[in-house]
Predict the structure of Dipeptide epimerase.
Amino acid sequence: MAHLVSVEVERWPVAGSFTISRGAKTFVDVVLCTVGEGALRGRGEATAIYYHGETAEGCAQAIAAYCKGLRGRPLTRQTVHRDMPRGAARNALDCALWDLEAKREGAPVWRLAGLEEPRPLVTAFTISVDNPARMEEDARKAVRRGFSLLKCKLTGEGDADRIAAVRQGAPDARLIVDANESWAGMDLIAETERLAALGVEMIEQPIRHGEEGGLAGLSPALPFCADESCQDSADLPRLADFPAINIKLDKAGGLTEALALAELAQGQGKRLMLGCMLSTSLGIAPAFLLAGQAEWVDLDGALLLERDREGGLTLDRGRLVPGTLWGGG
């Protein structure tokens, strides 16, 4: 029977800094969860959703408390999904159990989950918020590294100037943007028209979570993608005016819920984006299995760190290549 072997918090430095409308980060704390069954071990990693008030330490404590409270009852993906709330703690434990199951069954997680075998995929590379000149230079460097899809962080002030500069630095790149809820109270139609003229193809989360009704009746020039507004499948009824959703395993609370969310959203005709928090490749690998179904893949979290785990995903001309550190290959 599966049991918790260990749960710990690790700190990983960011390469430079990662800046969005809410501030800058120079490191990320992740939760590393290990479960076991006999000699077998499964690992899962998660990053706390800080804007929900989560912390890595709190997530680690929640995992330990849940497993201790089982008192001999089975530790399974099904019970974890049923008993724990959505969020990073459940994600780490759920993914560790998937990894353990793959080792027990001698089959990769993608096959156990009924997914296609993962293949190299184009990922977006994030251009952090900065002045236009710096964002132009960062875009130029990203293109030189082989990235063909850039995701630009915005602040709600001077955004068109920033994107014009990025377009100057990367004239042929595909562009998507993430407002991180910073467009509240702005003229959304006018903003989308400005960015559409610069070749942007999608806008993530322009409005604040909880204000989704403000999109009713709008016909923007670009599709809006729900990020903060979409945590798991329970949120879908509120998202009629978002044609796309961003699935992140840390928000959804694991691969198990992400699979359900993807199926329900696609059944409603929504377009998918697969995103991530800052993390190592161990946190990215489970999401990568679902990314083949997505129109936009934004799984560069490990690429923004100074270093990664051994066996992690690798980069080949702007494409992520599956690694070997999780899920049975």
